[in-house]
Design goal:
The protein has two domains: 161 residues, no CATH class; 85 residues, no CATH class. The radius of gyration is 23 Å and the shape is flat. The chain is mainly α and 254 residues long. It has a three-stranded antiparallel β-sheet. It has ten helices and three strands, in the order αααααβββααααα.
Length: 254
């Protein structure tokens, strides 16, 4: 089986060299860095987070650089479209570095808008790198165990796991259905493409409802609740020292 995109994250989490590190320490560390990077308005700190998280994930976790870069590229389009509202301005009189005039209206991009957009992109990728570092080093079962230790509501934990699990199930189902449609020339024209798209959407909805019902029945037949095997791994002094030094450097760069 080829592990790519979302599936590669789950696959690599179990094979990461950081998988044996205490899950509570990893979760608290990565989430704390994420919150600090968002709360503190510092480009240098965000750049440090991006580079250091890449180092932790790829070098310390032994994740392939191509896999990490491919995962980081997934939300690029969303981020670029989101910052368009910051970079592009509208005015009847003011103009900027790049201006498009439509009648009395000027659509322009200013130097200030570009600078602010770049700053937002860096902060966004800093937060994103923290989430990927956690995802690439900690399997979902360990994250759920951490949530239980922090006394999160059980219904929230179960819903999160089921949603996470169904992402992979539905992605695999869509891929199978699309491959079957292509093999039958289901995308040979515009009309057949729309028909195939609609059929896949309909069948996917029915399949997801069926799987959801089966999952609910399976949980109820076991008395309710989702239980995973977890290990209580000890926290090493070197790991605590690394976290302290990391925050010291990050604060100094802020």
């Amino acid at each position: 089986m080829e592990h790519t995109d979302f599936m590669s994250i789950d696959y690599n989490a179990y094979n990461s060299a950081l998988n044996k590190t205490n899950s509570v320490l990893k979760t608290v560390f990565f989430i704390s860095v994420l919150i600090y990077g968002i709360a503190v308005d510092s480009t240098r700190a965000s750049l440090f987070i991006i580079l250091s998280m890449a180092f932790i994930t790829v070098y310390l976790g032994h994740i392939k650089p191509s896999c990490y870069l491919r995962a980081m590229s997934i939300p690029v389009l969303f981020i670029v479209l989101s910052i368009t509202a910051v970079a592009v301005n509208f005015s009847r009189t003011e103009t900027g570095l790049f201006t498009l005039t439509l009648g009395d209206l000027n659509i322009f991009v200013s130097k200030r808008g570009i600078t602010k957009s770049i700053h937002i992109i860096i902060r966004a990728f800093g937060a994103l790198s923290c989430m990927y570092a956690l995802a690439f080093s900690t399997p979902m079962a360990d994250i759920i165990d951490v949530m239980r230790k922090f006394r999160l509501p059980e219904v929230v934990i179960e819903l999160m796991f089921l949603i996470y699990r169904f992402i992979f199930i539905l992605l695999d189902t869509v891929e199978t259905m699309t491959r079957a449609a292509v093999s039958r020339n289901g995308y040979s024209g515009i009309r057949t493409s729309f028909y195939s798209f609609g059929s896949i959407g309909k069948n996917l909805l029915l399949y997801s409802l069926k799987k959801a019902d089966s999952a609910y029945n399976a949980i109820e037949s076991r008395g309710g609740g989702i239980v995973f095997y977890s290990e209580d791994r000890s926290v090493k002094a070197t790991e605590i020292l690394f976290c302290v030094l990391y925050f010291a450097v990050m604060i100094c760069l802020s």
